[in-house]
Amino acid sequence: MTSLVVLENNNNNNHHYQFDGDKDSSTTSDRESEKYLRELTKTFTGIDKPLKNARKCETLNDLMRELRQTFDSDHVNIEYVNHLMLSYESNPAEWRKFAKFDRFRYTRNLVDAGNGKYNLMILCWNEGHASAIHDHADSHCFMKMLKGQLMETRYAWPKDASVNDDCKADIGNGNGAGGHHEEQEYNGDELEELSRSTLETNGVCYINDTLGLHRVENPSHTDVAVSLHLYCPPFDVCSIFNKQTGKRTKCNVTFWSKFGKRDPANAN
Ligand SMILES: [Fe+2]
């Protein structure tokens, strides 16, 4: 397994940071570098505007190509990835084939598996659809609005974030809304809300576990929302949290469709 190095070009100091490689073979310097990344991502909170004089992506294909190329290197500039996502102007004709909706809950539709280094996916939200409060499994997450609006509410981690492995749920494929299991008694505190913001069409937001947990919701009763997400590295298990108690539950994340086709493995 190749390690992914994430580079942030902050104040023109090109520091290299090791990101979650094969833990069994990681060296002391790998671990040190990973620690640096953790520190770094405490300060990277995303950028609002595309970088000046940097390459712009005119189409979704262009964006997919440029992301592939960027992640070809083991040195990835996190700010540049943010820039690329921002630079693309949403054109529904380009992403419509990936946008598959479900009546009952939001769907995750894989667009590109990024050579194993990242996942690019389109999430489709019908009116009022919302995610559970979740973490990001130690990955970087970029979310870009392609259509409509999404409201993001951030929460602080609960003081006791131990996982209840007995309660597994699935999210993303419409087979379960997550957390539909027998509730056991759990006496934790209500999660502290950190912020609330609304992402408009073509906007991009960034989150990782250092920045907290979040819940995403289409607040509209009349319009659907579509968002483009990049997760690096990819993950198939994350955690969801009960807002009232902070109780944490491990959750499999699955795809409703892959590359424009309904995923038979997750068909109802
Ligand atoms: Fe998220």
TrEMBL record:
<feature type="cross-link" description="3'-(S-cysteinyl)-tyrosine (Cys-Tyr)">
    <location>
        <begin position="141"/>
        <end position="231"/>
    </location>
</feature>
<dbReference type="GO" id="GO:0008198">
    <property type="term" value="F:ferrous iron binding"/>
</dbReference>
<dbReference type="GO" id="GO:0042412">
    <property type="term" value="P:taurine biosynthetic process"/>
</dbReference>
<keyword id="KW-0408">Iron</keyword>
<keyword id="KW-0560">Oxidoreductase</keyword>
<feature type="region of interest" description="Disordered">
    <location>
        <begin position="10"/>
        <end position="32"/>
    </location>
</feature>
<dbReference type="GO" id="GO:0019448">
    <property type="term" value="P:L-cysteine catabolic process"/>
</dbReference>
<comment type="pathway">
    <text>Organosulfur biosynthesis; taurine biosynthesis; hypotaurine from L-cysteine: step 1/2.</text>
</comment>
<protein>
    <recommendedName>
        <fullName>Cysteine dioxygenase</fullName>
        <ecNumber>1.13.11.20</ecNumber>
    </recommendedName>
</protein>
<keyword id="KW-0223">Dioxygenase</keyword>
<dbReference type="InterPro" id="IPR010300">
    <property type="entry name" value="CDO_1"/>
</dbReference>
<comment type="similarity">
    <text>Belongs to the cysteine dioxygenase family.</text>
</comment>
<feature type="binding site">
    <location>
        <position position="134"/>
    </location>
    <ligand>
        <name>Fe cation</name>
    </ligand>
</feature>
<feature type="binding site">
    <location>
        <position position="136"/>
    </location>
    <ligand>
        <name>Fe cation</name>
    </ligand>
</feature>
<dbReference type="Pfam" id="PF05995">
    <property type="entry name" value="CDO_I"/>
</dbReference>
<keyword id="KW-0883">Thioether bond</keyword>
<dbReference type="InterPro" id="IPR011051">
    <property type="entry name" value="RmlC_Cupin_sf"/>
</dbReference>
<keyword id="KW-0479">Metal-binding</keyword>
<feature type="compositionally biased region" description="Basic and acidic residues">
    <location>
        <begin position="17"/>
        <end position="32"/>
    </location>
</feature>
<feature type="binding site">
    <location>
        <position position="214"/>
    </location>
    <ligand>
        <name>Fe cation</name>
    </ligand>
</feature>
<dbReference type="GO" id="GO:0017172">
    <property type="term" value="F:cysteine dioxygenase activity"/>
</dbReference>
<dbReference type="InterPro" id="IPR014710">
    <property type="entry name" value="RmlC-like_jellyroll"/>
</dbReference>
